[in-house]
Design a protein that fits this description.
Length: 165
């Protein structure tokens, strides 16, 4: 009796994971963390929803409060040719923030002539300790996508503004 209930529990667990994976496959992209930094007692975490070909279909920036130990999901910015369906992927972080599944359009999308994210900016707070450095891939495929850096403060450890060119 104990063996049969264990087998039944395993089967339900397996079926549950299959159904979760099947619903997750309806998305044309997978959410991956691409960058993070800390500023004003908050940790900012940037996510991209990337297709199997490496195209970024959507992005968002979540905030983790280092004071209250809570996450706030950022709003999803879908790229041209993609749409946000709002389908839920889970209840725990980061799945609860992955609630916005991005699906492909019904009409073909023409890739942009310039794959660089010209005009995108990111601000990083430097510190005497460890902080996450700027990731050049934030501006697009390397090495053709360039960026500039501008110090925003006259301090020893200034905030640095990175602008994609």
């Amino acid at each position: 009796m104990k063996l049969s209930s264990s087998v039944a529990s395993f089967v339900f667990l397996l079926l549950g994971s299959i159904s979760i994976n099947a619903s997750a496959q309806s998305s044309v992209c997978t959410w991956v963390s691409v960058y993070g930094y800390v500023s004003n007692n908050n940790q900012y975490i940037s996510w991209n929803c990337q297709t199997s070909s490496g195209t970024t279909a959507a992005s968002r920036q979540d905030i983790y409060s280092l004071t209250w130990y809570t996450y706030s999901c950022g709003s999803v910015n879908a790229a041209n040719g993609y749409q946000n369906t709002g389908t839920t992927q889970g209840t725990a972080y980061p799945q609860k923030c992955n609630t916005n599944i991005v699906t492909a359009p019904t009409t073909p999308v023409t890739p942009p002539v310039n794959p660089c994210y010209t005009g995108s900016t990111q601000i990083i707070q430097t510190s005497p300790g460890t902080y996450t450095p700027f990731n050049p891939a934030f501006c697009g495929p390397q090495p053709q996508c360039k960026h500039s850096v501008t110090p925003l403060d006259p301090y020893s450890y200034p905030r640095l503004k990175y602008t994609c060119l």
